[in-house]
Amino acid sequence: MMCDVTSRFLAPSRWSVLLALLLLSCSSGGGGPTTTVVEYWAGTKSERTQAIGACLEEKGWSFEYVRDATGELAMSLPADIDTDAFHRDVEECEKAVAPIKWPETQEEYRTWFEHWIERYRCMVDAGFDLEDAPSFDSWYEAMLAEEGYDVPYLLKNPNDLISAVRACPADPEAFW
Hints:
Layout: H1 5-8, H2 12-26, H3 45-58, E1 64-67, E2 73-76, H4 83-96, H5 106-125, H6 136-144, H7 161-167
Antiparallel strand pairs: 1-2
Helix pairs in contact: 3-4
């Protein structure tokens, strides 16, 4: 009985072509689309501040944690620091910590706007004189342009800032 070797094995020229195609498909750009999964920060603002703080401490920075006027956890630094070096290290440490999940869709922005307008109404109800609240569309456009709005800065009297923030504090642990 005779065996047909060509049906069981590839001839050398075909093997070379097949090997080349396999190698090309494994090289960069030939493997098809890839999916990157981003892990977003799952904790609170304070926990993220502390994670960034731990990174800064590893880089040799010393500071104290304090609560600012809004109740958010902040870092109190000595006055004589090299601010440029500090800001560079902060940027590096922020990149080392999982990023914040900022809104991406109009629906997500609408949720943020609802929290924003709730705080605005609180200040109006507490008797503070504010500029007119923007419509969602105006607010949304400003957010996309990274101009944003922060409710206390719509106060007509800047001297009311601390009183208004105390009367209607933002959630110090939420990112909106």
